[in-house]
Amino acid sequence: FHLAGIRLAPKEKLEIPVLFMPAEMKIYKAVVVIHVMRENGENWPYEVTGESNTDLHRNVIVAENGETQGILWIYPINGTPEAPQQKSVVIRCQARQRLEQRVELLLIGVMPGATDLPDAGNSATVDTEELSSTPEVTDGSSATLEFLYELQYQSDEIRYQLESLVGMELVEKEWDTESRIVTLIFNVVFAPSKPMRSEATLVIQCTAGGLWKFPLVFIATEPEVDDVINIEAVGLNKESIVGFKLTSQTR
């Protein structure tokens, strides 16, 4: 879109609407350019010299007499399409037990129309900053698709609670060229130490573009009974005492 003839007073703010409606799961890029000049068409007396700031020199439009005729602000925009929210995946395990489970997740609308996928060893678990700086894929016919994934938690408290109890590894990829659906198969390990119910989000990003989020619910049920304590009464209205030891798993 193009906006022209907008008049701004000194110190006034301008809001520029940006609408993003992706048609496919691929990387979109655009640039917002803002050009400002005086309302009366006169130039600024300020002259840009070789000693001026490099960014300023690049974004200033200089008239023939060396004065400033206009200023440009350039804002790059990177659009990442995000799939609709997926259904929750429930992972249930009894406390003090260890569960190893394969979870299949479907990524719909993956670009480009590749026929081959890399081995599972080519993908890695990354943090949020790495996830947001995905390598650019400019060749739409690339035969290689990489997927970056990470577990995100609703709070630091939940992260602290789950990080040592949950492990995830991408072990297999399956690619359907006709439907453009990629199936990612994860091996999930859950070893809860006590009854709990916590939630996390598995965020998956394809280097060709597209973001998918899968809610995960981790449920740890009551553990098995450690032992049965039998107390034999010595008589009515008399106390009976039995002793047993409890061992702490931590310091």
TrEMBL record:
Residues 82-221 form the CFAP47-like immunoglobulin-like domain. It comes from the Eukaryota. Residues 122-138 have a biased composition (Polar residues). GO terms for cellular component: cilium. GO terms for biological process: sperm axoneme assembly. Residues 118-138 are annotated as: Disordered. InterPro entries: Ig_CFAP47. PANTHER family: CILIA- AND FLAGELLA-ASSOCIATED PROTEIN 47 (PTHR45912). This is CFA47 protein.
